[in-house]
Write a structure and sequence with these properties.
Two copies of one chain form a homodimer. Chain A contains five helices and two strands; from the N terminus they run βαααααβ. With about 60 residues, the first copy, chain A, is mostly helical. Chain A has a two-stranded antiparallel ribbon with strand order 1-2. The interface between A and B is medium-sized, with 17 and 17 residues. Chain A binds a DNA duplex (30 and 30 nucleotides) through helix 3.
Chain lengths: ~60, ~60
DNA sequence: AAATAATGTAAATAACACTTTACATTAAAA
DNA sequence: TTTTAATGTAAAGTGTTATTTACATTATTT
């Protein structure tokens, strides 16, 4: 699953550390999500969504396969 | 996190078994999600979302706390 | 160029999502 | 009312999400 986290962070001028604190996860978790190492849990996705004031679908791109 | 799975299933006349097969998880997983035992993973939430043709936000209700 | 901030990555561990098997309860149909 | 379908639940196991600590690399500032 792809995501626009890095771009959204850049647009709003946040570091991975900043975002991690706001969302309530570790910096490594944000990094791993950005790098596509794993997908966030649904609760984490919701927090990211609310933080950027964007629907989950506008941040995460699910493609079947 | 609350969800409208049971209602959506009823509206479309699907059993937990039906939904489980369509989504690609076990019936117990659907049951557990409905019963609030745990939240689905983001990929599973996306599959449910696409199946019902509704945004994730219209199916799952995240409340902070 | 040297110091500092930001990011990438890894190992060990904990917590959670999900599976299978199995059985009990509830609802619906014959 | 007896059978069958649907749902609820539990235990044991697997894989994934997230944590902490720690260090290396890449940018940015000074």
């Amino acid at each position: 699953m792809k995501n626009r986290l890095k771009v959204l962070r850049a647009e709003n001028d946040y570091t991975q550390e900043d975002l991690a604190e706001f969302i309530g996860v570790s910096r490594q978790t944000i990094n791993a999500i950005e790098k596509g190492k794993f997908d966030p849990s649904l609760p984490t996705a919701f927090r990211i969504s609310k933080f950027f004031k964007l629907p989950i679908e506008d941040i995460f791109d699910y493609e079947e396969g």
